[in-house]
Design a protein that fits this description.
By secondary structure, the chain is α/β, with parallel strands linked by helices. 38% of the residues lie in helices and 12% in strands. The protein is built from 14 helices and ten strands. Keywords: Oxidoreductase.
C-alpha cells in the first residue's frame, strides 16, 4: 500500500479557472446500489464508499465527481453524508444533470430550464451543501434549444448555486456551438469537457479536444482503463466471468456499450491487445503496472487537467494513485504508446494533414506530438 506520509498527488489548474485540482479525480459511479439494469456488480456500500473517500483525501485528492443518475441519487447521498463531516471548502465537488431518473413525470429529463433547476435543488439536498463547484450537462439534448440550457446554467452561477459549468459526452460541433453561443450572449464560459478518453478510445482527438485546446477548456477523461480492459488482468482467448467486463460478457446484446464495453469486440481488436502488450513492456521496464502506465499516458496529455478514476475497493485506489506523481513516461515511451494505439485517420483529416505536410509528411497535426513530455 502506498504510504500516505510519503505520497501526495500532483495538482493542475482546472482549465482557465485558477482552481487547482488533484490530477486524479475520484469518480463515484460505484457508490451505492440501485435497481438500474438489475443492479451493477462491484458497487460499494456507504461504509466502504466513505473509506475510499477518506483514503483519497489522505493521498492528496481534492476533486470528487458524481451525477444525479449514479445509483439513482444514492451516490450523491453517500457523498453528502460524508461531506457534512468535512470542511466543505477543501474540496472541488462536481455533479451532472440530464438523464431520466425513473420518475413518472415525463419532464424529469433532458436540459430544459425546468429540469435543470429542479435537479440542482435535489442534488444540493442530497449532497448536503449549498453549492457545487462544477455542474455539468451529462449529454447533449436534441429536444431543448442549447440557448435555454446555457442561459439556465449561467443563472445558476449568478445566484451562487454552482460556481462553474461544464459538459460531457458531446461532439466537436456541439462543443463549438456551446463556446460560440456563450461568447455571443456574454455568458460565463464552460470550463471543462468530461469525455471518454483512453489508449483504447481516442476519437475526440480529431475534433473535440482541438476545441478544448483553442479555448482553454479542461479535459476530464472518464473510463481511463476502458472498463478494465487496460488494467492488464484480462487475457485474449480467456472469456472473463468476473468484473464488469465479465458481467457484460454474459449478456453482450443487452449491456455491451461504451460505458460497459463488449468483450467480443475487445477480444477481436488487434489494436487493443498490441496496446496492452506495449503497456506491459513499458510497465516492466519502469516497475509499474499496466493500469498505472495507461493512466500516466493520459496525465501527460497537455489538455488533461484531471483523470477520473472509479474504484471498487481501497486496493484499486492505492494502485491507481501511483500514476499521479513521482515519475513520468519519456517522450519515446509516449510516442510508442501513441503509435500502437493510433486510430485510423478518416477523411477529411488525413487529406487536410497530408496536404499541409505536417511533421514532414507524418500526416499528424502538431496536437498528436507536441504534448509528449520527458
Amino acid at each position: 500500500m502506498t504510504d500516505s506520509s510519503e505520497f501526495k498527488m500532483d495538482y493542475n489548474y482546472l482549465g482557465r479557472t485558477g482552481l487547482q485540482v488533484s490530477n486524479l479525480c475520484l469518480g463515484t459511479m460505484t457508490f451505492g446500489q440501485s435497481s438500474f439494469q438489475g443492479g451493477l456488480p462491484g458497487q460499494c456500500d456507504e461504509e466502504l464508499s466513505h473509506q475510499i473517500l477518506n483514503r483519497y483525501v489522505e493521498l492528496g485528492g481534492n476533486f470528487i465527481d458524481t451525477a444525479d443518475i449514479y445509483s439513482l441519487g444514492n451516490s450523491e447521498s453517500i457523498i453528502g453524508n460524508w461531506l457534512k463531516q468535512q470542511q466543505r471548502d477543501k474540496y472541488i465537488l462536481a455533479t451532472k444533470v440530464f438523464f431520466w431518473r425513473v420518475n413518472p413525470d415525463i419532464n424529469r429529463q433532458g436540459l430544459t430550464r425546468r429540469h435543470i433547476v429542479q435537479s440542482i435543488e435535489e442534488s444540493l439536498e442530497r449532497l448536503q451543501t449549498d453549492y457545487v463547484d462544477l455542474y455539468q450537462m451529462h449529454c447533449w439534448d436534441n429536444a431543448t434549444p442549447i440557448r435555454e440550457t446555457l442561459l439556465t446554467f449561467n443563472d445558476l452561477i449568478r445566484c451562487g448555486k454552482i460556481r462553474h459549468a461544464g459538459c460531457s459526452n458531446v461532439t466537436g460541433w456541439q462543443l463549438q456551438q456551446i463556446v460560440d453561443l456563450n461568447r455571443e450572449l456574454n455568458l460565463n464560459p464552460f470550463i471543462s469537457l468530461q469525455q471518454q478518453y483512453s489508449l483504447a478510445t481516442r476519437y475526440d482527438e480529431f475534433e473535440s479536444f482541438n476545441v478544448c485546446k483553442l479555448n482553454g477548456i479542461a479535459v476530464l477523461p472518464w473510463s481511463a482503463l476502458k472498463g478494465g480492459a487496460l488494467s492488464g488482468k484480462y487475457k485474449r482467448g480467456e472469456r472473463p466471468v468476473a468484473g464488469r467486463i465479465g458481467w457484460v460478457a454474459q449478456d453482450e446484446a443487452q449491456r455491451g456499450n461504451q460505458t460497459f464495453p463488449s468483450w467480443d469486440k475487445l477480444e477481436g481488436s488487434d489494436k487493443i491487445w498490441n496496446t496492452i502488450w506495449k503497456l506491459e513492456e513499458i510497465g516492466k521496464a519502469k516497475g509499474k503496472s499496466v493500469a498505472q502506465v495507461a493512466i500516466r499516458w493520459l496525465l501527460q496529455r497537455d489538455i488533461v487537467s484531471s483523470v477520473i478514476i472509479g474504484v471498487r475497493n481501497l486496493k484499486q485506489l492505492n494502485d491507481n494513485a501511483v500514476a499521479s506523481s513521482g515519475w513520468k513516461l519519456t517522450k519515446e515511451e509516449m510516442q510508442e504508446l501513441n503509435d500502437v494505439s493510433m486510430p485510423e485517420i478518416p477523411y477529411p483529416y488525413e487529406q487536410i494533414w497530408r496536404q499541409n505536410d505536417y511533421k514532414n509528411n507524418k500526416y499528424l497535426p502538431s496536437y498528436f506530438v507536441d504534448d509528449m513530455t520527458d
